[in-house]
Design a protein that fits this description.
Helix content of chain A: 25-40%
Bound molecules: iron/sulfur cluster
Strand order of the largest sheet of chain A: 2-1-3-4-5
Largest interface: A-B, 41 and 40 residues
Strand content of chain B: 15-25%
Number of strands of chain A: 5
Number of domains of chain A: 2
Distance between the termini of chain A: 53 Å
Order of helices and strands of chain B: EHEEEEEHHEEEHEHHHEEHHH
Strand order of the largest sheet of chain B: 3-2-6-7-8-9-1-10
Radius of gyration of chain B: 21 Å
Oligomer: heterodimer
Mean pLDDT of chain A: 92
Mean pLDDT of chain B: 95
Radius of gyration of chain A: 19 Å
Chain lengths: 267, 339
Amino acid sequence: MESIRKRAKELLDSKQVQVIIGYENGTSNKVRASFIKDSAQVDKLIYDERCTQNLALYLVKHEVKHLGKMGIVATIPAMRTINMLISEEQVKPENIVVLGIGEDGKLLDFPDLTVMESFLQKANIELTAKDKEAIEKLKKMTTQEKFDYWSNALETCFKCYACRSACPLCYCTRCAVECNQPQWIPVQASKNGNYEWHMLRAMHLSGRCVSCGDCGRACPLDIPVHLLTMHMAEESKRLFGVDSGLSMKMESVLSNYKLDDKDNFIL
Amino acid sequence: MELERKLIKKASLEKLYQKLQANGNKIFAPIIKDGKTEFHYNPSYAEVTYDHIQTIQSLKNTVFPKIENLVRFTTDRNGTEVTEVDLAKVPSLVLWGAHPCDAAGFKALKSIFMWDYKDEYFNSRMNKMVVIGLSCYKCDDNCFCTSVGLNPGATNGSDILLTKLSTGDYLAEIITEKGKEIVNAAAELFEAAPAEAKEGNLAQVKQQFSHEKVTKNLAGAFEHPFWVENSLRCIGCGACAFVCPACACFDIQDETKGKTGKRLRCWDSCGFGLFTIHTSGHNPREVQSQRWRQRIMHKFSYMPERNESLGCIGCGRCSRACPVDMNILEQLIALEKIQ
Ligand code: SF4
Ligand code: SF4
Ligand code: SF4
Ligand code: SF4
């Protein structure tokens, strides 16, 4: 914690960044994102095991981006997100400084982003035991069982789209669900409409999802939608050998074709 | 009408539920499913729970459904034929076990839907609904009903309000004619009023701010730096509006299939960037802080001014649902003090 505050102070005082995006204490023993612009405030910054939100989300937020250069406290999924956002030209590397947090919760020193890349190549990007178990359980189900599981889980979805807003890689300003000429996805929050919405999201995140879990955490109705995108991440790895966000030059699994791509899944 | 007090024994309460169900009413009552307490249609009495603090979702879906089919239409070469929805078919509904804040939430919605234009869809559902409220005996640190003029035993909005007494039986306060009809039709289940006072059986919710003061401060706070400072973390996800009993923003969309279609009224949120965007591309609420300001202003300034009702009943659902800890109570306490 002290090392994060110290580094934040240095970056702000030397004007290398205008804002530090980190974590602070919130209400009811919760933690939340903090935006520190004045080095006198760095003592607000904290880091502990409650700090799970993927802060890279704020790198593309209009009002945050306009504060100037940003220093960001980034966990492993957030670092992977940063690489994805750079690959997809949403973030300019020269506009950010990463205060990486390793698996042990300690501050990592990244003189520049290529060092972060090398760190990520070797980092542990395994899913948490809980998510792994949930995905394994789903994989063992028959097609019918899976269909029943998701029909039941998605039935309550009222399409607030909090899952989408919480996802740092769902940054489109006009999402396909909002297009109505033609209407791709039914407006109704109903069984089929909900299915289509979540299938669409899972497809658009295939090979891009960094498995941070924020979409599932954001859902006010506790629907485990992150399992869909995390499963697609596993599939991208299995079929195309791609783990998202390990470098600043990721090729998109969905929009690139290679001659040696397997096509055995095409019906 | 004058409020009447009666006693209903625990066993009689079950009989009342069954009687209402047997009479063909749809019942909406709280049950625990998959570890979560939410209201469901027509559960068996054995499933009904009285132990929760608050459900995740509000109860507004009963009168302001997340999707309301306004009209159906068929279009062909000769023009468009419109079929109205038959509102007489709206079923009678008993809302069983709504907490006092939720019951008051319907009044806030009414102040919007019945304000200048009288919304028939809302009104027909409202007329067909009876609210059997249940006083709160516990609360959490997100509850702030007492700061918005309510309390854990407030009768405002309920037709009958039940309060669990130390004996395990219930005090029934009969508030409206609708409530009285129910009692008259099941007179054998009600007994003379108990001696025990209601007050000792209610949750203690400390008043944390004066809503009058907040309203007063908001009048001059449109350009205050407070909004940007306190909403940088808001991600505009709309979860707060979707769980809120008093949020009434909607969007109207046509959904067509071939030649036929439906005009639908769907929940929306002033927190969404698309909510105010014009066809030209101009967006009068361009950034999230302006949308957060709108949420607070609407509830605590515009509504008290125009609709003579606050747009918040202090249920705390938005604070519990927010993924980034935008705690409305914390912000209202701060707004009471801004200069
Ligand atoms: S956050 Fe939950 S309820 Fe909202 S759209 Fe996503 S899955 Fe549905
Ligand atoms: S889809 Fe969910 S798990 Fe994947 S990056 Fe987005 S928020 Fe994280
Ligand atoms: S206040 Fe919270 S729940 Fe509401 S839009 Fe902002 S982030 Fe979402
Ligand atoms: S604004 Fe929040 S606390 Fe107020 S009524 Fe709505 S959900 Fe409840």
